[in-house]
Amino acid sequence: MTPSPTVRWTAGWLLAAVWALSFPLFSTLAPHRLWGWCAAAGYLAAAAATALGRRREALGAALLGAVAVPLLYLVLTGQGQSEVGVIERSGRLLLDTGKTYVDHPAGVGEYTPYLPAMSLLGVPRALLGGAFGGGGGGAVRLLGDARIWCAAALFGGMWAGRRLLGAAPSPLLPLLVASPVVALPLAVSGVDLPLAGLCCLALAAAASGRPALAGAALGAACALKWTALPAVAVAAALLGARGGARAALRCAGAAGAVTAALVLPGALLQPAELWRQVFAFPTGRAEVATPAGSPLPGHLLAGLGPWGWYLTVGLLALGGLGVALSLWVRPPRTVVAAADRLALGLTLAFLLAPAGRFGYLALPVLLVAWARSAAPAGAAPSRVVARSGARGQGAVAAS
């Protein structure tokens, strides 16, 4: 006998509560423990409301407990993962010196493993004054905190992507925000959220035949973190399958131009630091070991010695080649197919990287869920196909 929807939803909220409770029990990070207590209470309240047939109240309880309460408390008390302070320090350096990296970093806390555009999310804190972890009143902390701007980039990208696709309102989107996939990083760090929002916008733009917009969004994403590079290949393949080679090339060209405009000034000012902090440090080749050490396959292999590091890099390259070949042989034609292919590539990259965290896997999950909320099967994709067909391939390529 198939369980009723009420039973399934109640069980889902209870599983989320169990997951949240693992953080106060096992995590050594105070922000994670705080989030775990708040989120568990919200998810348990959601389970109770669902069992009583009040699904709207259940969603509100989950959003309150897993997002609103912990986010506001952590922001107003100046707590969070170290990434928040790193972004805000980078923004301060950009305003004061024009640079984004600490020269000759002495410890983990002085490394900035992001490309130069990430510092822009730390500029509001520098403009408003105060510092992460202390200083400034409540309004300064709220408006200056990098997590708020990371969240704005995520929600802005998801909303704009849905508008491009003409998607109808979907209950999946607020559920996604309330889930641990988004709620946890939103409250404690937020660093991967802008990348996710820009990828959502880029895939939607590609699916709706807008190569220049897709390329601009991808360029901005690639200027934040180099892990956005696979999204360029996926969006170009989608455009190529739908609008021809010219559309794909226009997207790739726009992505390259925007990335260069945002990254080259910082790269020319600090080429050695950019290499050391953005590439060597995250892959375990810098003087200081990266704290990203979840026991994923790539990290376990890299820990076996130099040959293990080269082996995992080789496997990573093979995984990337396999995804690239799949794009060539069978390119995606809908936003859902493109999101699935990008999620597959990112999952392989995160699993096989020499250093990584379980939390990175939230990005592929978010992409898959968002695509289905923005383009339900048989609805949004067909509308996009009809629109593209009406304009013709030449119009798509020239848009």
Structure description:
It is a single chain. The protein has 399 residues and is an all-alpha fold. Helix content is 72%, strand content 0%.
- State the secondary-structure class: mainly alpha
How many DSSP helices?
A: 19
Shape category: globular
The H/E string reads HHHHHHHHHHHHHHHHHHH
- Could you tell me the radius of gyration in angstroms? 21 Å
Strand % is under 5%
Helix content: over 70%
Query: Taking all residues together, what is the mean pLDDT?
Result: 88
Amino- and carboxy-terminal Cα gap: 51 Å
Uncertain residue ranges = 376-399
Largest sheet: none
Annotation, overall tally of beta strands: 0
Write the layout of secondary structure elements.
Elements: H1 5-26, H2 30-51, H3 55-76, H4 82-97, H5 123-128, H6 138-144, H7 146-165, H8 172-178, H9 180-188, H10 193-207, H11 211-222, H12 229-243, H13 245-269, H14 271-280, H15 297-302, H16 306-329, H17 335-352, H18 362-374, H19 380-398
Helix pairs in contact: 1-2, 2-3, 2-9, 3-8, 3-9, 7-10, 10-11, 10-12, 10-18, 11-12, 11-13, 12-13, 12-16, 12-17, 13-14, 16-17, 17-18
